[in-house]
Amino acid sequence: MKNSNAGTANGGGILARAPGFLSKISIKEMIPVITLVLLLIVSGFLSASFFSFGNITNLLRQNAGLVIVSMGMLMVILTGGIDLSVGSMLALGAVLVANFSLTMPVLAAILVTSLILMCLGAFAAYFVAFRRLAPFVVTLALMTMARGLAFIISKGTPIRIAGDSWLIPFGNGSFLNVLPYPVLTSLIVFLVIMFVLRYTAYGRIVKAVGSNETTVRLSGIRVSLYTFSVYLISSLLCSFGGVISAARAGVGSAQVGTGLELDAIAAVVIGGASLTGGKGTALNTLMGVFILGLISNIMNLMGVHSYYQQVIKGLIIIFAVLLQSAKRKGG
Fold first, then answer.
1. What's the pLDDT band for 136 if we cut at 50, 70, 90?
2. Is residue 10 included in any domain, yes or no?
3. pLDDT tens digits, residue range 271-294?
4. In a domain, 295, yes or no
5. Distances (CA, A) of 295 to 29, 35, 67
6. Which residues pair with 305 in a beta bridge?
7. Position 307 in a domain
8. Fewer C-beta within 10 Å: the chain N or C terminus?
């Protein structure tokens, strides 16, 4: 069991006081932040237009959905699980909210969409948490089901959102003409997840489950409920991501979100989280999202073909995993 969580299961340590925001942070934990800063500097030298307001705004808009989905992925990975369905669930959310917005108020459409996705998430969570099936297999099945439902509902054709719907200005407008609404939404989600993981007993127990599930269970805590809850959170955040996708594009398409689950996992891993659970922070996951986003953005500005971008992203993921291994061994 990791030393950082060793006190979690002894003498009620799971419910101990949360560490302060300004508590001592090691250089190893700051690696994603340092990497992001270095990438910003390099990007500024490589492209004169990188720091333009239009490019930065576009970068933030493009990654708003990934930020939201990655926060849900982080919660799942902290318990030692994995969620391969997030890309398909986002697509289903986009199709549902676009379809429902044609016949009901937008807020009602968002609420119904969220409830449907949470029901699907609960379906998968039941088999993972209570039937003890492998998360990889269960969420892979949900990934296939959600994508199929998205195509069935949309009949393979993007569903256009009504022009007078406030979803359109939400997807393309800005708060005080400065902060795009999708970015503001992702910022709120990030702050909520960061607060939950850092300052609440729930967040500390989620981490403890991934660190040593047996010890947490022997402490009298119902591990299955916490495992169940993180998949619900992930599905809820997928619905938010789907709303943003539909609002930005003006249509709900069953083809969006392809490969998003891999980007979300990559962002969490690059942010220093352990795929075995128990280790990871919302801030570093956010840094992981923007590291991926920065790399894609600067390569687009330099005219690098998307095929080469995929190869480079893969190498970065391997490097991040090797770095984690080196940190565990004290290298």
1. very high
2. no
3. 889 888 999 999 999 999 999 998
4. yes
5. 21, 11, 15
6. none
7. yes
8. C
The values of phi and psi at residue 104, to 5°, are -145, 165
Beta pairing partners, 175: 179
Secondary structure, 3-state, the chain: CCHHHHHHHCCCHHHCCCCCCCCCCCCHHHHHHHHHHHHHHHHHHHCCCCCCHHHHHHHHHHHHHHHHHHHHHHHHHHCCCCCCCHHHHHHHHHHHHHHHCCCCCHHHHHHHHHHHHHHHHHHHHHHHHCCCCCHHHHHHHHHHHHHHHHHHHHCCCCEECCCCCCHHHHHHCEECCCEEHHHHHHHHHHHHHHHHHHHCHHHHHHHHHHHCHHHHHHCCCCHHHHHHHHHHHHHHHHHHHHHHHHHHHCEECCCCCCCHHHHHHHHHHHCCCCCCCCCCCHHHHHHHHHHHHHHHHHHHHCCCCHHHHHHHHHHHHHHHHHHHHHHHCCC
Q: Determine the structural domain holding residue 297 and report its residue range.
A: 44-326
Residues 34-59 have pLDDT tens digits of 888 888 888 888 877 888 888 888 89
Residue 233 in domain: yes
Instruction: For the beta carbon of residue 12, count every other beta carbon within 10 angstroms.
Output: 11
Count how many domains the chain has.
Answer: 1
Domain with residue 244: its CATH number is 1.10.3470
